[in-house]
Structure formats: C-alpha cells, structure tokens
Amino acid sequence: MRKTLGLLLFSILLSIQVSAQTFTLEKLNGFNKLTMDEFKKEMKQLQFRFYDRTEGLGFLLTEYDSPDYTSKIGKFEYAEEKSGDRIEFEFKDKKEYDQYLKLILADGYKETEKGKIITKEPYIDYYRNKEHIRLILPKTGGSSPYTIIVFK
Predict the structure, then answer these.
(1) Residue 133 three-state SS
(2) What is the distance between the alpha carbons of residues 65 and 135, in angstroms, rounded to a whole number?
(3) What are phi and psi of 57, to 5 degrees?
(4) CB of 61 within 8 A of CB of 79?
(5) pTM of the model
(6) pLDDT tens digits for 14-57?
(7) How many Cβ atoms are within 10 Å of 122's Cβ, its own excluded?
(8) What distance in Å separates the CA atoms of residue 104 and residue 108, rounded to the nearest whole number?
(9) Based on CB atoms within 10 Å of each CB, which residue in 21, 68, 82, 88 is the most buried?
C-alpha cells in the first residue's frame, strides 16, 4: 500500500513538473542548433503537441503547444539566410517574464534597443557579444502573451 501511494505521489509530481515546463536560456539556445527534424523529436519527447506549420517566402515555421496549453514554442528555419533562424517561446505569465529578464541580465546581456514589432507589441533587445535575445511584451492593455525570441 505504501509503495503504491509513493508511486502515485511521484507520478502526480512528475505530471505537475511536465505541465509547468519552462526552458532555460541555454535550452532555448540549444534548440537553434537542432535541425527541424531533431527539434520535432525533442518536442515529442517533451510531450508538446503539434500546433501549426507555416511556410513563407524562404522560411518554415513549426509550432508546438505545451502539454497544459499555457505556452507555445516555434522554430523558424530560413532556406538561405541561416542567421535568421530563431526560436520563439510564448507564455502567458508576467512572473515567468520577470524570471527570464532576471536571467538575461544575470547572464551579462545588455539592453540595446526598444521598439514595436509590426503588430504593435513593444519589444526590448538584449545582446551579449553576438548573441541576441528579444523580449516581446503584450500589447498595451493586454495581459498576454509574453514572448522570448532567441536568435541564432
């Protein structure tokens, strides 16, 4: 009985950990180094669900939803300009945004530019040497989504 209860508790804790999945900056950066096929396999292992695939002029975007549907991750892969490849991780929680911002600054990234993307959400760019991260905030008056983009 005790072993069964312990196993049940362990599986509950494991499911909570998986549903609250967040990625470290290193993990997001590592996704950029994967091929699209490797990225798809990684998402499947993490139990992320396929969301959408978009083909544009010279790029392919593949997106996945987290198991609890609270975040989405996408990989952009460009046919010719590989420096445009990037990972976009979208989440709904301001607390998680604050944690990423703290990690970015602690890792030595410096704020370099502010602006608005084409859909009018404000962004802040951070650089460390040649590494580039962009944080996108919700539109004014909106509460989500927050997005972190890790460029290749």
Answers:
(1) strand
(2) 19
(3) -70, 100
(4) no
(5) 0.80
(6) 333 333 447 999 999 999 999 999 999 999 999 999 999 999 88
(7) 14
(8) 7
(9) 88
